[in-house]
Amino acid sequence: IARCSSLRSIEVMEQLKELNKLLVAKEFQIRIDGIALLMDHCKKNPHFVSSNIVQIFDTFTLRLQDSNKKVNQYALESVVSMIPLLKNGFNPVLFSVVTIVMDNLNSKNSGIYSAAVKVLDTMITYLDNLLLLQIIASRVRFLTGRALQDITDRLAGLVAVAYPRKPQVAERHILPVLWYFLNNMIGNGVLPGKSGNVRTVVSKLAKSLHKQMGLKLEEYVCNQPQHVIKLFQDLLDMDLQ
């Protein structure tokens, strides 16, 4: 038995070595082959991938921000297929992948942008929404442009699912995001130093949170400065098409 076990671990090490070699290759076509091999492992032996996921993704995440657009897009698209196969086995690398996917949401390349959106929505469908809410909420203030719009929009949806499960945990992570927006938005919904108008998505987030928390949220808002109270009320009254 011990001999079988050591042979198995040698085989695993060889497989990891081969995968790593392809994923870091100089030629983009070979890096694509590496991604295809990883996908093959996910389909045929998901346990191998989930057992070694941190080590594998140390290299694979580089392909999610590859300078070659084809590789970048293919890597993102492969994550869309991986998530349903690995499910919770994906959790150890969730933070690092979410962070990189968010960066891809600001890509000027439409293929990369669409693939990043698909990754995000696939995560919401298959993975722990409470864990996702915590990770996403912690990153909001670092986002700009289209990424900020898309992520805030998804947060509003996550609140509806995650809040009923663990209200206190959800509040602890989502309320600072709401205060961040309400305290920093100027004019008609612009955040200083960030591009784009976030008024509509912040309204969506405020409404979603208010639906879950009701009077409790209103009491929290009452302790905020006067301009924040007014803005909050305006956002709740906003007609979302």
Quick structural overview:
Residues 5-226 form the TOG domain. This protein has 241 residues and is an all-alpha fold.
Describe the structure.
With 241 residues, this protein is mostly helical. It is 78% helix and 0% strand. The longest helix has 22 residues, at 2-23. The termini are far apart. The mean pLDDT is 93. Residues 5-226 form the TOG domain. InterPro entries: ARM-like, ARM-type_fold, TOG. One of its GO terms (molecular function) is microtubule binding. It comes from Naja naja (Indian cobra). This is TOG array regulator of axonemal microtubules 2.
Number of helical segments? Answer: 13
Run of helices and strands: HHHHHHHHHHHHH
Radius of gyration: 21 Å
User: What is the global morphology?
Assistant: elongated
> Got a strand count?
0
The chain-level mean pLDDT equals 93
Give structural attributes.
241 residues, 13 helices, single chain
Any chance you could write out the topology, listing elements then pairs?
Elements: H1 2-23, H2 28-44, H3 46-51, H4 53-63, H5 69-86, H6 94-104, H7 110-126, H8 129-139, H9 145-165, H10 167-184, H11 199-213, H12 215-222, H13 226-237
Helix pairs in contact: 1-2, 1-4, 2-5, 5-7, 6-7, 6-8, 8-9, 8-10, 9-10, 9-11, 11-13
